[in-house]
Amino acid sequence: MSDRVDIPDDRTGDRRTITGGFFEREVYLSSEETAAFLHELAEQLEAGPSFTISASEWEIPFEYDDPVEVEIEFADPVEVEIEFADQRNRELEIELEFTAPAGGEDLSVR
Questions:
Q1: Rounded Cα gap, residues 7 and 3, in angstroms
Q2: What distance in Å separates the CA atoms of residue 1 and residue 51, rounded to the nearest whole number?
Q3: Around 77, how many Cα atoms within 13 Å sit in the side-chain half-sphere?
Q4: Mean confidence (pLDDT) of the chain
Q5: H helix count then E strand count, the chain
């Protein structure tokens, strides 16, 4: 079994490996694509403390230590901003944070 967890996208090009610095991407997936991505990620978490998140243009190999932080945030802006009571943009955010093991500056996945 590969340790790669691919994010579906339709772009092509050379894939660059990101191992340092700052990188951020927002990807919009269908419900089915999101479920498939989360299943792949869950399989990698069960397999061991490393995985590679990738799309066609980039990949991030990562090794982590337990525990994994799971943050749940709920926002109902209607209750916060009463003047927009007719625009209901409720949001639920689920964030996973993986911490690199100490001394993991030169991470690689083999």
A1: 13
A2: 11
A3: 10
A4: 80
A5: 2, 6
